[in-house]
Write a structure and sequence with these properties.
The complex is a heterodimer of chains A (113) and B (114).
Chain A lengths: L2 E5 L2 E5 L4 E8 L3 E9 L6 E7 L4 E4 L2 E6 L4 E6 L8 E9 L6 E3 L3 E6 L1
Chain B lengths: L4 E3 L2 E4 L5 E6 L6 E7 L5 E8 L2 E5 L6 E5 L5 E5 L8 E8 L9 E2 L3 E5 L1
Parallel strand pairs in B: 2-11
Antiparallel strand pairs in B: 1-3, 3-8, 4-5, 4-9, 5-6, 7-8, 9-10, 9-11
Chain lengths: 113, 114
Amino acid sequence: KNQVEQSPQSLIILEGKNCTLQCNYTVSPFSNLRWYKQDTGRGPVSLTIMTFSENTKSNGRYTATLDADTKQSSLHITASQLSDSASYICVVSAFGGADGLTFGKGTHLIIQP
Amino acid sequence: DSGVTQTPKHLITATGQRVTLRCSPRSGDLSVYWYQQSLDQGLQFLIQYYNGEERAKGNILERFSAQQFPDLHSELNLSSLELGDSALYFCASSVDPREAYEQYFGPGTRLTVT
């Protein structure tokens, strides 16, 4: 069964600090992995998409890594800002269509001033 | 703003009732997806339409149905509502139905069943 596990469930850090969120998956056959940011009560917004051949991708202060061998991904946030407070969702896609999307439960990140 | 619109923003109704949620995709996007997000659950894929035809089905209950109209807007119908149907319902759209393409999410409809 396809699964995506994210850790930690929640994280509190001080403004200006860095943090790293983890995503482990068992999805086959692997197509791509995405990280979304979801503000409370809003729709998710895509941060990065990585295919099998990509092992790092950046979007401003967000950098995602992918290790397809160990089936792990991380999202690193640099110099955190209060606006980074949100849930971060890892989504792994299998070939074959939308029913192949498996969502993690997300990491709830709180940035404190 | 993703360009995907959803109405209504909030909906409060009683158990046993039926509601319709509406979604307009981004201009040019042919594929529409519906998701449910409960308080303690992650996003659950319900159903996907592409250019008016059902393309993929996820964990959609038999009490739920959807369709995509010729103008590409989509509606999600929820009937015989139960307390457990209370959730955020998101619509997303993409230009291509294949899994590699970016999905753009709408702001969601918050459904409360009392």
